[in-house]
Specification:
Layout (H helix, E strand, L loop, with lengths): L1 H12 E4 L4 E4 L23 H6 L1 H11 L7 H8 L1 H13 L9 E6 L3 E6 L2 H19 L15 H15 L15 E6 L3 H4 L2 H8 L6 H12 L15 H26 L2 E5 L2 E6 L2 H19 L9 E4 L4 E3 L2 E3 L4 E3 L1 H19 L5 H15 L5 H15 L5 H14 L1
Helix pairs in contact: 3-5, 3-6, 6-11, 9-11, 11-12, 13-14, 14-15
C-alpha cells in the first residue's frame, strides 16, 4: 500500500513529459533532466540581413534620409513623382541581383585645397542609406570611443573637447617647463597619405566579412565599390558618398584597435581620430616617435597605406596644434582663416539658393546654428557676432520652424 500511495502521489502531483524526459513536481525535486518551462532557452532566429536591407520599409527610410535638406532639388522631385514604383523597382533589382549603379558625376571643389568630388545618382544614394541602415549599427558597436567622424553623438566639437582633456592629461594640468612659459607635453599630428584614393577593396571586403558573412550583402558592397573608376583597379573610394564615409571608419578601425590594444596599453598614449586625421598626445617626444614608426609599419603591412611624410610631425603642445579647423593653444583656441573663408562661401551660396527658393530657411538656420556652436568653443566673440549680424542682414528677418516652435512653447508656458 505504501508503494501504491507513493505512485499515486507521483501521478497526482507530478508532470512527466515523455518527449523530453523532464519531470516537474510540487517540491521542485528532479528526476532525470529537469527544466522549468519558464526558463526554457529559446534559440533566437538568426537575422536575415539581406531581407531586412531589401524590405520596402527599409528602402522607404533610406529615401527619407537621402532627401533630407534636398526636398526641393529637381532630381528628388522627379524620383518622388512615382515614389512607390521607384522604391519597388529598387527592391526588385536588389532581390534579383540586377542592381547596377549609374555612373558617378565628378566635379572639382576648391576650399582652398583642390578635391575631386564624385556624386552618386539619387536612386543610388537611397541604396547607400539602405545598406548603412542595416550594417552600420553592427560595426559601430566595435568602434573605439575616440573615433569621432560620421558617428551619432560624436563630431568635431566632441573631438575638440576630448583634445582639451588629453592636453591637460599629457601636460599634467598645464604644468610649465622650468624657466619658460611653455607647458609640458607633445603631440603627434598625422594623417594618411591620399587615404580615399588608396583604400584597397580586397582588404576592405575582408575586414567587413569578419562581421558580415551574407554573400548577397558582400555582392552589393563590391558593386558599390567597383562603380568608382580609378587609375589603379581595386583601389579608392569616391569623396562625397555616404558609403565612403562609413567604409573609411571600418577600414581605419583596424588601426584604432591596434593603437588601443598594442600601443595605448603599453605606452599610455592619448589618441583621437577624425576620418584619416589623428592626434596622439604624450609627455614624451621619444615615445611618440616610436609610436609613429609602429603606426606607419602597421599601415603599410596590414592596410596598404602610409602616413603623409610632410603632415605627420611631432611638436610641443605649447606651440599650438592645428586640429579640425582650429588652432589649439594651451590657454586659448582660434578659428583658422581657411575655416572662416569656407563658412562665408557656404553662407553666400545658401543665400543665392534661398533667393530662387532652392533651399528652405530651416536648412540655413541649422547651418548657422551648427557653426555658432562650433565657433563658440573658440576665443572669437567679436568675429562671431559680426558674422551672425551679416547673416541676419542677408535673410531679412526670416524665421525657421525651430524658432517658431521655441516661441510658441514659451508663450504656452507663460499663459
Amino acid at each position: 500500500m505504501a508503494r501504491v500511495g507513493r505512485l499515486n502521489n507521483f501521478n497526482n502531483n507530478s508532470n512527466f513529459n515523455a518527449s523530453n524526459r523532464n519531470i516537474d513536481n510540487n517540491n521542485n525535486r528532479v528526476r532525470g533532466i529537469a527544466q522549468d518551462p519558464a526558463e526554457t532557452f529559446m534559440m533566437k532566429k538568426p537575422r536575415d540581413l539581406w531581407q531586412e536591407l531589401c524590405s520596402y520599409k527599409n528602402l522607404e527610410l533610406a529615401w527619407r534620409k537621402a532627401r533630407k535638406h534636398k526636398a526641393k532639388k529637381q532630381y528628388v522631385i522627379d524620383f518622388e513623382k512615382n515614389l512607390a514604383e521607384n522604391l519597388t523597382l529598387l527592391r526588385t533589382e536588389l532581390l534579383l541581383h540586377a542592381y547596377r549603379p549609374l555612373p558617378l558625376k565628378t566635379f572639382i571643389l576648391r576650399d582652398p585645397k583642390t578635391r575631386v568630388i564624385s556624386k552618386s545618382d539619387f536612386r543610388d544614394r537611397v541604396i547607400h542609406h539602405a545598406l548603412c541602415n542595416i550594417i552600420e549599427p553592427i560595426f559601430d558597436k566595435a568602434f573605439i570611443y575616440d573615433s569621432y567622424a560620421n558617428r551619432k553623438g560624436k563630431g568635431t566639437l566632441a573631438a575638440i573637447k576630448r583634445f582639451e582633456y588629453f592636453k591637460n592629461k599629457a601636460s599634467r594640468n598645464l604644468t610649465k617647463i622650468d624657466k619658460t612659459k611653455g607647458i609640458k607635453g607633445f603631440v603627434l599630428k598625422a594623417d594618411v597619405k591620399h587615404y580615399f584614393d588608396t583604400v584597397d577593396h580586397e582588404i576592405l571586403v575582408r575586414i567587413i566579412q569578419k562581421k558580415i558573412n551574407d554573400k548577397r550583402i558582400i555582392w552589393l558592397i563590391k558593386t558599390i565599390l567597383s562603380n568608382h573608376k580609378t587609375k589603379t583597379q581595386g583601389k579608392g573610394m569616391p569623396l562625397g558618398n555616404l558609403t565612403s564615409q562609413f567604409f573609411a571608419n571600418v577600414y581605419l578601425n583596424e588601426l584604432d584597435q591596434y593603437i588601443k590594444h598594442e600601443l595605448k596599453a603599453r605606452h599610455y598614449i592619448n589618441y583621437i581620430r577624425y576620418v584619416d586625421d589623428f592626434v596622439i598626445l604624450h609627455r614624451s617626444a621619444e615615445r611618440l616617435e616610436y609610436c609613429k614608426e609602429q603606426i606607419n609599419r602597421f599601415l603599410k603591412d596590414e592596410l596598404a597605406l602610409q602616413l603623409h611624410p610632410d603632415k605627420s610631425k611631432i611638436h610641443p603642445l605649447y606651440t599650438g596644434t592645428d586640429f579640425l579647423g582650429l588652432r589649439i593653444y594651451p590657454y586659448h583656441r582660434l578659428l583658422k582663416r581657411r575655416n572662416l573663408r569656407k563658412f562665408r562661401k557656404k553662407l553666400e551660396l545658401m543665400h543665392s539658393e534661398y533667393k530662387v527658393k532652392k533651399v528652405k530657411y530651416d536648412a540655413i538656420y541649422d547651418f548657422l546654428e551648427g557653426w555658432t556652436a562650433y565657433s563658440k568653443y573658440t576665443n572669437t566673440f567679436k568675429l562671431r557676432r559680426k558674422q551672425i549680424a551679416h547673416a541676419e542682414n542677408l535673410f531679412g528677418g526670416a524665421l525657421s520652424n525651430k524658432e517658431l516652435n521655441r516661441y510658441f512653447k514659451h508663450v504656452s508656458l507663460v499663459f
